Amino acid sequence: MATAAPPVTFADVREAAARLEGIAHRTPVLTSRTLNSLVGAEVFVKAENFQRIGAFKFRGAYNAAAQLPRDRLAKGIAAYSSGNHAQAVALAARELGTTAVILMPEDAPRSKREATAGYGAEVVTYDRYTQDRTALGHALAEDRGLALIPPYDHPHVIAGQGTAALELLEETGPLDALLVPVGGGGLIAGSATAAKALHPGTRVIGVEPEAGDDTKRSLEAGTRVTVPVPRTIADGQALATPGEITFPLNQRLVDAIALVSDAEIVTAMRFAFERLKIVLEPSGATPLAALLAGRVDSPPRRIGVIASGGNIDVDRFTALTGRPDQG
Fold first, then answer.
1. 222 phi-psi bin (left φ>0, alpha ψ -120 to 50, beta other)
2. Can 208 be counted among the known catalytic residues?
3. 143: annotated active-site residue
4. Is the pLDDT of residue 299 over 90?
5. Catalytic site residue 57?
6. For tag attachment on the chain, is the N or C end more exposed, with fewer CB atoms within 10 Å?
7. Which among 76, 162, 184, 212 is annotated as catalytic?
């Protein structure tokens, strides 16, 4: 019996890259001799904190929105998000000349809510601990006649996210391992699609906060597992269940999942600030945290790290890490 084609292919990632050319930033790849020395490997950090809206999410949001039929696009877009996808959809809508309505948790970082509204979107809030954002998001889109662009569980979103890894590998050449943050699984599904197509021997390692290990548990169980809504500083990874579309892709393509504590994430944020001279939000720092904390077994010679975003305001950054000028 023939195997069903995956919902996202390397050709889809390539097409997304062409669609995003001149729209999304081609973000820099950073290196540090200090980091290399600490982990005993050559490390290449894809700095998606320099992406438009400050995170990789713009890649998938724009790729999906740009493929909507003109009549659907004209009616507006809906999304649900803890922050970065919210901003990404809001900006994509503005770039494409339409409107956006975004469902965000009440406790989403203030800077992310304000930025989303600043791009022109209407923000509707909900309680992430007692309400189902997926159901609410679908109801909101249906009630208002809007096209829904989910944060990860959509082939066009996944393909767009995969362009971050594509760019990284085009610049670095073959990597022995690629470390990627895992929330709903869209970034790692797209990244793994690109990495395995270009260099099949690359180990793709996802990184989750300890409090939100739904993907690790799901891969071990062989089926999607739901955990209590995580309480972690990595708000972009505070999900309870892997995506319906992303999970089978990650089952096939992801080699391992590493877990990091909130304290280890903070250490990585400080290191990125002090040594790489960049600001990372907690979710964007988890792969770096895994490296620095020794969560990757026998680190290979050449490692790629996707630092997925830097959307954190100065008050929260200093509250988590201490004043940046201390020490």
1. left
2. yes
3. no
4. no
5. yes
6. N
7. 212
